[in-house]
Structure formats: structure tokens, C-alpha cells
Amino acid sequence: MYVTPRRQTARCRPHRLAGHLARSLALPLTSRDTSTESACGGTLGLAARAANREREWLVQVMDQHALRSIMGAFPKGVTVVTTVDATGAPRGLTPNDVASVSSEPPMLLVCINKTSTTLAALRHSRKWAVNYLLAGTSEVSNQFATKLPDKFFGVEWRPGELGVPVLQHAALAYAECTTHQEIDAGDHVILIGMVAAGQPPAPGTLPLMYFRRTYATWSEDHVEGSYVPQGA
Questions:
Q1: How many domains does the chain have?
Q2: Which ranges of 12-103 would DSSP assign to H, the alpha helix?
Q3: Is the pLDDT of residue 62 over 60?
């Protein structure tokens, strides 16, 4: 609920104050500046309390199940991130997400759960590969999504140019990276990597995809057209 004061000076613009409060993460929404409230007829305090109630409602509604359902509406490729630990042993995981960041310089990011048993190796090595899985390799994805001590059991791999494991028969394509930046983000860590080497997919190969907690693949029979960048 919003209450407009009877008088509004040039310095006191409540709608701007409320908008600033709603967008700000640095300032607690329940905090009050009594001098400013006095100048604005108490509007800042009312706006802060209203914004705080709205924010609490959003937090209560957006639980983990709802968030997963929303993110599950976005079809995406499946990847396995691989590296080596301090002993040189191969380590890997199926990450929460992978995304392109920049083409110049070439950069991408991966999101790693802080509870991952591979995170320590990624931080130590600072070199890793993103393996984009082929259609029909869902068992590889499932294996690397576990906390098994040897996730590479039965999986063929070879050292890449950076010395990190590259999956030989399960990967559609791969990109080898060095860690450029690490960002703390809630219960995950975002690793931004500089792409140093890689291999694109061979003609006619299809990716493993994930949509609404179900594995699938690309269908050439339902292609709607090619994307043409417009420089937006």
C-alpha cells in the first residue's frame, strides 16, 4: 500500500525512494533514517515497510521446487566438467549450468555446487574442460552427477592440450579452459574460464538435451529455421 504525503517538495520524491529501496540489496529494507523521514513526512518509512512486506512475500512463494520447475522449462544441452586433482587423478561432475560469456576474448562459465566433491580439484588445477555430451549418453551424465569416488569408471578419456580429461566417445564437442575468475553465488560457485582449446561437433552429430527433468535429443524433423543475429 502506498500513501502520498500532503506536501511534496522537489527534494522529496517518494516513488523514487520506494523504487530505490526495492532495488537495493545493500540497504536493509527495514532500516529507517529518521532525519529523512521527517523531511518527507514519514513516506520513506512507509515505502520501506511496504517494500519489505512485498519482498518477504516473494521469498516465501519462490521455494526451491518452484524455482526448479521454472528453470526446467528451459531446454539445454548436457555437459560434464572435467579436471585433475593434486595427485593428477581425473575428477569431474555434471554441472548445474554452462553458458557462453564472451567471444572476444573467448570465455564461458560453469556453475558448481559448493558441496561438489570436484570443486577442490577445480580450484587447485585452475584448468578444466567442458564436455558437451552426445545423444544417447545419459548414463554418463548420471554417473558424473553422483558422488562416486571414481566417476570415470568405464568412461574412456584422453588428456587434452591443457592436460585435463577429454571424454573420447561421449563428447559431442569440448572446450578447455583456464580459470579467469571465481564468483560466490549463493549455494554455488561460478567459474569464468578463458577458452584455450577445444573441438567443435562433427557434422551429423546430435546433442544430449535436458528438459523438465527428462533427457532427450535434437530432432532435425522439427527445425523451425536458422537464427540470424541482428546485432541487437
A1: 2
A2: 14-23, 34-39, 43-61, 64-71
A3: yes
